[in-house]
Amino acid sequence: MTGAALADGQTVHDALAVPTAEEAVRQNEIWTLKRKLAEEIAPELRRHYETEIVPRHVAEHGAPPADRRVIASLMAPDPRMRLFSALRRRSQEQMWDLVLTSANRQLDRLLDLAAGASAAPGSLDLDPALEIPRYLRAVDIHCMPTGYYREFAPDDVTAGALYDRGVYVYAGGQLGGLNDDKGWSVIRGYLDRHRPGWTPARILDMGCSVGHSTVPYTLRYPAAEVHAIDVAAPMLRYARARAAALGAPVHFAQRDATATGYPDASFDLVVSHILLHETSVKAVQQVLAESYRLLRPGGLMIHAEYPPFDTMDPFAQFLVEWDTTNNNEPFWSKVRTLDLVAMAATAGFDPATVHRELIPTGRRLTTGQSGSTSGGGRMQVLAASR
Ligand SMILES: C[S@@+](CC[C@H](N)C(=O)[O-])C[C@H]1O[C@@H](n2cnc3c(N)ncnc32)[C@H](O)[C@@H]1O
């Protein structure tokens, strides 16, 4: 069931770790700080770069800084840059800490809710023997202290509850009240345009986390059987409780997107939303091959990711790369350099059907770059048909 929205706009549903008034104030301080850093300080850094660093570099070397790494070395000593870095890192850690405290306070209720969700339409199929990929174990990704997969109680949902509220605060509400902007962006910005009127019978969402992007597919394609997989059990248990609260009949399963175990030709539509940047080169290639194997003739694969480096200027690339080194996102930069179109062809797709395009999305990144689509950001879509 959904109800009112929090004062900051997040839609309240039964599974949400709703902050107390005191917790909300502290969480919203982080939101305000993050927004200030993105909307005021990042553009200031760009101005400093363009008006002071570039002219000096041109005077000394006869050309502007060659790339994002040179820019990083030139910006690093600047006191404004150091303050920006310190505040961004600190705000990220503090955001998770505050939301975790709030989620822990409500843990008994959330565990009960998850246990009681088993009767709702849809399903949950966990595999305790599934190995968590090394790239998820190696760091606490984007400084999330639970990671996606760690468990602190029997049948735990903590990481899922943390993610649902944390993503909303992190994105400053830009993903919408249900954090579902990416799912809707792919549906409206790609599927409605390229396959209007299409009615896929079976849909698979890979790397679904708590199902933020999965639920929109149940709404746009109500006759379809919607499946969603992730390697992390706490995310899936929470996703199941959340989907039940929202009345969305999703079949969640703990499976690895690189080797799902579903039979060949099981799905008409295979999608993912910001999964690829949290994996590895090898896993991306395997996910593409698995997508190819899973599609029925006439089926469609769509992987939505953040924009690649070749769509932004070197200073924007430098600010994007900040997260790679400072926010525990080891694959955040590398994925933006991959030739995903060529990799899809290697995975088996007919090159004539493979393409990538940028679609509008609500989420803006801290690039300090003007010129993104009005009011929002852009997301890369890699698409191919079987
Ligand atoms: C950034 S989150 C995805 C967010 C979600 N798709 C959305 O749109 O809200 C990445 C998710 O991918 C999962 N993941 C990473 N590697 C995976 C793999 N090989 N197979 C399945 N899930 C994976 C992680 O556990 C995590 O929940």
TrEMBL record:
Keyword S-adenosyl-L-methionine present in the record's keywords: the answer is: yes
User: The Methyltransferase domain covers which part of the protein?
Assistant: 203-299
Could you tell me which CDD domains the record lists for this protein?
Answer: AdoMet_MTases
Q: Which controlled-vocabulary keywords does the entry list?
A: Methyltransferase, S-adenosyl-L-methionine, Transferase
- Composition-biased stretches, type Low complexity, lie in 363-372
Output the superkingdom of the source species.
Bacteria
Query: Where do the segments described as Disordered lie?
Result: 363-386
| Coiled-coil stretches noted in the UniProt entry, renumbered to this chain | none
Name used for this protein in its record: Methyltransferase domain-containing protein
Organism from which the protein derives:
Microbispora amethystogenes
